[in-house]
Amino acid sequence: MARRKRDKLQTFGMRHLRYVFAAADNGSFRRAAAAVGVQESAISRRIRDLEDALGVALFVRSNSGVRLTHAGRQFIARTRKGVNQINHAILDAASSGRGEVGKVRIGIFTSLATGFLADLLRAFVDNNSDVRPELVEGGPAMHIAAIQHHQLDVAFLTGRPQADRCDTLHLWNERVLVAIPESHEFSGRADIMWSDLRDRHFIVSESDPGPEIHDYLVKHLADLGRHPSVERHAVGRDNLLNLVAMNQGLTVQSEATMGSQFPGVIYRPLKGEVLPFNAIWLRENDNPALRRLLSLARTMSRDLNAIEAPGLTFK
């Protein structure tokens, strides 16, 4: 029974989905038919055939039009994503075949406000107008899995990432900063020691890079023999720093975020703490745009290491 149902569903194609989308968007079969240029009976019949094959109603019919059922909303949400991916794949393949454009898919884990990564991507775009960069935010585990499944070309991550079939390249370092309220007792200091933080309350975001920051704080503060106080909040970076300004806790972040200032928040470097940043990519990835990006990254990294980087002044 299940196999017969699956085989029957495989006979339905993009036309059925097009009619379902049109009906959902227009709220009636009549308006959907006008939008796609077919008879209303064709819309109604094909949607009914699809519902029969699925064994569930996608629409509630009434004299005033149609509306999606709960099952219909779920079906629309998932199938739209799939159709959009297919359309993007068709456009990308056609463009690449004509030699018009390439694409490099980049996983990022740090702010693009300032710093090496921001400079790298700007320079790459300026010198490669035929390549479209696609940025994806996320954590290390997600990015590495995406690279291994050919869903990302490269990711720029903290630490020393390692993964099967992947190569890595150390590119730059950033200092670790403690974000504190302007009125905090540490505001007059040039830097902060780990020992100064042993009894302090910290806040981090539940989303990336919050979990990694949480683990970073727990590791270093536990080394001092204290159980750290770290509270997670379901907010992004901007609202997290607003909480810092309201004296709800301290947080830490990398040096690149210094490009974004928040009222009531100042930054002090954590003495002796440096985060290494590495590129990681699949060894067998032959995307020419990726190779160009890595070549530029190597050049810029060598240039950066050949000169003494000027120090930042912390407000």
What does this structure look like?
A six-stranded mixed beta sheet has the order 4-3-5-10-6-9, with helices on both faces. The chain has a two-stranded antiparallel ribbon with strand order 1-2. Strands 7-8 form a two-stranded parallel sheet. Mean pLDDT is 84; it is low at 308-315. The chain is built from ten helices and ten strands. It is globular. It has helices at 2-9, 14-26, 29-36, 40-54, 70-97, 116-127, 140-148, 210-222, 237-245, 288-306; strands spanning 59-62, 65-68, 102-108, 131-137, 154-158, 166-181, 201-205, 229-233, 251-254, 265-282. The N and C termini lie far apart (70 Å). It is α/β, with parallel strands linked by helices. It has three domains: 2-96, Orthogonal Bundle (Arc Repressor Mutant, subunit A); 103-172 and 277-306, Periplasmic binding protein-like II (D-Maltodextrin-Binding Protein, domain 2), CATH 3.40.190.10; 175-275, 3-Layer(aba) Sandwich (D-Maltodextrin-Binding Protein, domain 2), CATH 3.40.190.10. Helix 8 links the parallel strand 7 and strand 8 (229-233). 43% of the residues lie in helices and 24% in strands.
Blueprint of the fold:
Elements: H1 2-9, H2 14-26, H3 29-36, H4 40-54, E1 59-62, E2 65-68, H5 70-97, E3 102-108, H6 116-127, E4 131-137, H7 140-148, E5 154-158, E6 166-181, E7 201-205, H8 210-222, E8 229-233, H9 237-245, E9 251-254, E10 265-282, H10 288-306
Parallel strand pairs: 3-4, 3-5, 7-8
Antiparallel strand pairs: 1-2, 5-10, 6-9, 6-10
